[in-house]
Amino acid sequence: MTATAATVEPQTEAATSAELSPEELADRERVGDPQISPDGRAVAFTVAPYGKKEEHGQQAIWWSRDGLPAVKFTSGNHVDAAPRWSPDGKTLAFISNRKDKETSHLYLAPVNGGEAQRLGDLEGEFSDLRWSPDGTRLAVLRRDQDSEAEKKRKEEEKDDPVIYEVDAKRTRLWVVDVATGKARCLTHGERHVWEVAWSMDGERLVVVLTDEAVINALFAPASLWVLPVGGGRTKRVAEFPMAPSSPVVRAVDGQLIIAVVANDGRDDPSPSVWAVPLDGGDKRNLLPDHEGVVNTLVPVPGHDDKLAALIVERTHGGVYVLPADCGDLMPALPERFRGKGSVIDGPSLSADGKRLAFIWGDGVTPEEVYVADVGGEATAVSDVGKPFRDRL
Predict the structure, then answer these.
(1) In this structure, are residues 43 and 36 in contact, taking their beta carbons and an 8 Å threshold?
(2) CB–CB of 353/298 below 8 Å?
């Protein structure tokens, strides 16, 4: 797959006028899911229109290296999603419906040139794609597919109404071998998986489970479970009054812990960073007195005992680094972004924890993808908001 140079079309009189049309707003492109490479030199992200301009949805993966303006990595004629760097930085895994508009597959693309290749035969509706620490496997969530009877009813009898959250399909955890494409399902029965994280040794997976597959299940009690990748008994580690999110495995004083975004129900309803031992034990709030709302949690690579968090404080979303055993927050954004606008998506950090990628915007500045040194200066690598500058 060969990257092509980005082109900027001359702005028309309508595009440079102060008045915004509904069509402009519906058709404008948005950036999402920024992922920085392990060496910190490149960032991959998605670009898609807000509206569906064609019969089928379209979304491309773009990338930038060394702070240069981003270019297309995939064509965007299909829906290409969830770009994820291999631990060695040589391959991008992603999800795409390029073979069949009605279903998706997993793909691997060499970063330095070459066509993307489909990984195995597993197909369906995927989410939460994650490489194992050693780069030999991919964990992914897959929604249960229709039974043969359901397919016949929909395809042959044309009895296909979509009734929201009635007979909702459960999502299962699958692990795919990168070398062979062989896939195994690790969760079964009446359990729905919302999110997944690898342990640091790659031998276990942490999942957020509920009994029901409906959105309201996120606002009811949910559990953290640990699953051995090679098989064996699963273990429930902790239960929360509402479903936790963004699980991350870290090490504190030689003990493995799971950090999540969670709350304690009515007793402490604000989303915060909570930690619980991987082998089970008491859970505790790492930011009990912080007034911000934690949105996302990610590991800081190269630092087994550190986390990075997207935290909304009043009307601004910022990024902080904190130890996994306490709530000492250190700002990670460049000075010019602190207390201004909001980080919309991210962060993603390089393997040494010194570089990050994020999407930022404010009330008059369109969202763009930025790369920066932690606490240092930032460079915008996308330019999708150019037609709207000085017009918002």
Answers:
(1) yes
(2) no
Collect all residues with Cβ–Cβ distance below 8 Å to 272 and sequence separation of at least 6.
Answer: 261, 262, 263, 285, 286, 287, 288, 290, 294
Q: Which residue has the tokens 């968090």?
A: 309
pLDDT at 106: 98
First-last CA distance in the chain: 36
pLDDT of residue 7: 36
- For strands 245-252 and 171-177, give the pairing: unpaired
Q: In what order do the strands lie in the sheet with 222-228?
A: 192-198, 204-210, 222-228, 235-240
Dihedral in degrees, nearest 10, Cα atoms 71, 388, 341, 296: -40
- Show the CA angle centred on residue 300, arms to residues 234 and 359, nearest 5°: 110
Instruction: Name the stretches of the chain with pLDDT < 70.
Output: 1-17, 52-55
pTM: 0.91
Q: Which residues contact 236 (CB under 8 A, 6 or more apart)?
A: 223, 224, 225, 280
135 and 87 Cβ atoms separated by less than 8 Å: yes
| pLDDT tens by residue, 34-55 | 999 999 999 999 999 887 666 6
pLDDT at res. 2: 41
- Number of neighbouring beta carbons within 10 Å of residue 70: 24
In this prediction, residue 53 carries a pLDDT of 66
10 Å Cβ neighbour count for 282?
8
- Cα–Cα distances in angstroms (integers) from residue 96 to residues 79, 99, 289, in the given order: 6, 8, 43
Whether cis (ω within 30° of 0) applies to the bond prior to 301 is no
Give CA–CA dist 330/321, Å, rounded: 5
Residue with tokens 């959250």: 165
216 to 194, 210, 294: CA distances (angstroms): 12, 10, 20
Instruction: Measure CA 335 to chain center.
Output: 25
pLDDT at 54: 66
Rounded CA Rg of the chain = 21
One-letter amino acid for residue 283 of the chain: K
Q: Which pairs with CB-CB distance under 8 Å and at least 24 residues apart come from 8-15?
A: 8/383, 8/386, 11/387, 15/387
Report the alpha-carbon distance of residue 234 to residue 191 in Å, rounded.
13
